[in-house]
Amino acid sequence: MARRGVKNIVRIRCQDSAKSSGAETMPYAMYLEAIEKPVRERLAKVPGVDFIVLTKGIPIRLTGAPTGVSGTQPSLDSTLACLGYASIKDAIPVSLSDSGFTGKCWFNRFWNPTQRFSHAKFGGYLVTRLDGYTVEDAKSLVAYAVQSEKVKPSGKFLLDVAEGHGIGHVDQVPFNPVVEGKPDLKVINEMAYNEWDADLVVAGQKLASRGLPTRVDRTENFVGRVGELMGYASWGSNDPKFDDKGYKMLRFDPGGIAETAVSTSARTFLSTSGGQSLIADLIRGGASGAKGYCDEPLLQAVASPTILFDKYTRGWTLAESYYAASRFVGWEDIVVGDPICSPYQPSH
Q1: Measuring CA to CA, how many Å separate 243 from each of 185, 196, 250?
Q2: Fewer Cβ neighbours under 10 Å: the N or C end of the chain?
Q3: Residue pLDDT, tens place only, 19-41
Q4: How many Å separate Cα 237 from the centre of its chain?
């Protein structure tokens, strides 16, 4: 509020997810009353809102909801992001079924757009949260975002391919889930591992062609212990050669953002041990933004690195870049960071 001059505040009362793992999950009926209702009331009074920022302590997932994995369990964040979709005539509902997982969500109307976001044009909202292991970690997201806009970025991009998967169809990147207004079930339900590797490769080619310092690692090694990052994408703990200590030693320049193809990378923002790699560790390493998932999203929901880094380095905001690169809303996605962070804005 202080750093960005935010005056449009919705105060809510709900369980504090920063106190226990059980409090990170909220029943959908309780969410409707405690969070969605006051948010809707404020939005009705204040037109022109595009971004919604959630603060540390707000639960991350819902149960008993009409969307999400198993048809009932989405992230709270992504549920807010599709607010109003049900009343939009051309909004496309999606049913997912892959690897034994099923679920319902919406096709993201802001997927890979040519125009910048506005609620008036696209519907829904770009929802991010300020979160991390500690309040200090959450506050650092805004501090680094503001700092990044004062100095021209010079950090590098690291794209860590899992070469053992092979490389998919680079000529089809990014893989579109809807073609001519109709869901492409091959992308929605059957995205192969090597297709996300293809996206990593293409992302690296595009960044390098624009003179941005980029490393695309195509060895079988997991690359950790790297600093001065402005962008990072990898398979995280899904990499066969994953190095947990190396992952936790990645360091970011102010404004640096990240994505990992990890099913439960945002399952908690509490200190824990074991399980898959967490984006909270990247935030602790100085990342200004990261995208994760509170439950199994399936690979097709993971952000397209090609779109994410291209939009971001062309001056789009952090929130615009992540949502433009993400195929679904009302799903498992959680975007962490100051939504208007934009270190590559034209003034630089």
Answers
A1: 35, 20, 11
A2: N
A3: 999 999 999 999 999 999 999 99
A4: 17
